[in-house]
Amino acid sequence: MATISARGLAKSYSGKPAVRDLSFDVQPGSVTGFLGPNGSGKSTTMRLMLGLDRGAGSTVFDGRPFAELKDPMRHVGALLEAKPFHPTRKARNHLRMLAAANGISARRVDEVLATVGLHDVARSKPKGFSLGMGQRLGLAAALLGDPHTLILDEPANGLDPQGIQWMRVFLQGLAAEGRSVFVSSHLLSEMALMADHLVVIGKGSLIATGPIDEFVSSSRQNAVVVRTPEASELAPLLQAAGGTVTVLAPGSLSVAGLDIEAIGDLAHSHRLRLHELSPKVATLEEAFLERTAGSEEFQALAPAPSATVEGGPR
Amino acid sequence: MKRALAYEWTRIRTLRSTWWLTGLAIFLGIGISTLFAWAIHHDFTNGGVTSEDLDQLGPVVVTQLAASGEIPSVICFVLAILGIFAWGHEYRHGMIRASLTALNSRTQLWVAKFLVVGAWVAVVAAVTLIGSGVVASFFLRDYVDVFSGDTWQIIGRQVLYGVVLTWLAMAFTSITRSQAFALVSIFLWPFLIETLINVFFRLVPGLRDHTELLRFRPFDAGGRLVDAFNDPTGTFGDPLSAWGGLVVFGGTAVVGMVASYLLFTRRDA
To answer: How is B32-83 classified by DSSP, letter by letter?
Structure first.
């Protein structure tokens, strides 16, 4: 089982940095999610890892760079494109071609087609495949060599909810067998269910890496909701105790920086009544948006007020 | 390297376009030779035949008139499209990244493509030319032995021309990474650009005194490689000899291939 170790990855396009001195590890036996806003350099990073793009830095798979792996598909399976195949070459032939490059048998081709649910269309031309079917064929190609490492760029794109759930369970199963699974996705809710670890980047630079629980728990969005008829008395006491207090509504406070027990004890010691004391746990999306704020490559404007639209030219 | 050759061999056999281009080359090649041989047979039967009529008739008829030195080889241009597709599909359909994650040696992939496509073109061209000769022999058996004299040598030269042309087309496609541009260019270059150069040399006063340089136009030089009527004064005389033509035309392909290799191994996939 292989540890992926990326060190100092960097790449510029026409002088504009796309990936900057990026270093991280991916451990075997886990699904590691690769997150970042659009244009943050996720796909470029994956291509750099596999030597497809020329740039600085190095990536090793159990100590060996991709270019030095004999029969690379037996070590690393990759899915980098949505539809990486010729539209009129039959699905099975597409896989047979890739298999031939790595000494993989035709029997294994049929196995992976069945695994991804494409057995019935194995002899069909993929020009009629939906995006989801294309992704499944790409995943079949990645699995051909039964590799210990998978690098998947947005594999859930185009999959229906059943397909997404299948993909999640499937990748978790592969990780449970001790494989390293490195997967990028913009579906944060899905990533929250699937990944054990995260690598988060913004504008090509590393923002965070580590267990997903640590990433979420470090968010300032984690707070305690306090409902009390004596909010005006309690709020200054909470602030004095080191909490950050936000008024959600009259009689309702959000308190960050203090745990539930401390807040309850403080209210009790000042004989203040509490009607609710509940934790508010940040979601991965909230933690991600907080940590990547300002890192978007493409920032959209808020919709203009309707009055402005009405007053505009017709 | 064996795995790279296996990959490319499977790639070329599992494409529909390979088979229809191969079929088209054989159909056109044998078809044109059949029509030509039949027409000559009809002419000889009705108008008689002179020894001048029979001069280099075998090479001309098996090469679909390319050995006349007047027109390029139809079948070689059809087969060169296989070379354009070999690289063009990689970029047009985003296959190149899948290819390079299956084969992590760019050098091996590059070499395998040129070898396998070159071998395929050589075999199909040889089969077509020999098949054309067999059919032509049926019509012209009373007048000439089609496979006598220079015919076998011209067949060999034509096969070589086809391979060099295909490699040149492959190099150009690999450099430009555009199938459409390469397809247009491989026809525009010999049929329009070299003709324009010819016109410039004959009309522009400063160039008019240097028309002897026209023999170094790559496709014109390539034509000398298969020209059965060529009467050269030396390897690089005017006109070029077959060897001279091979050096110029093949040299152009080699320059293109070197550029293709250097760019392929250095650029992002």
So the answer is: HHHHHHHHHHHHHHHH---HHHHTTHHHHHHTTTGGGTSS--HHHHHHHHHH
Q: A28 and A148 in contact (C-beta within 8 Å)?
A: yes
Q: Would you place residue A307 in the very low, low, confident or very high pLDDT band (cuts 50, 70, 90)? A: very low
As given in the structure block, the two tokens for residue B93 are 């359909």
B chain contacts of residue A85, beta-carbon cutoff 8 Å: 93, 95, 98
pLDDT tens for B190-206 read: 889 998 998 888 888 88
Phi first, then psi: give them for residue A36, nearest 5 degrees.
Answer: 175, 155
In this predicted model, what pLDDT tens digit does every residue of A9-21 receive, in sequence order? 999 998 899 999 9
Task: Please check whether residue B17 is in contact with residue B179, taking contact to mean a CB–CB distance below 8 angstroms.
Answer: no
3-class SS of residue B136: helix
| Interface membership of A69 toward B (CB under 8 Å) | yes
pTM of the model: 0.83
For A249-288, the pLDDT digits (tens) are 999 999 988 889 999 999 999 999 999 999 888 888 888 8
Locate the domains of chain B by residue range.
Answer: 2-266
- Residue by residue, DSSP assigns A150-169 as EEEESTTTT--HHHHHHHHH
Residues of A within 8 A of B15 (CB-CB) are 86, 88-89
Please provide the DSSP assignment of A76-135 as one string: EEEE-SSS-S-TTS-HHHHHHHHHHTTT--HHHHHHHHHHTT-GGGTTS-GGG--HHHHH
Contact B97/A51, CB-based, under 8 Å? no
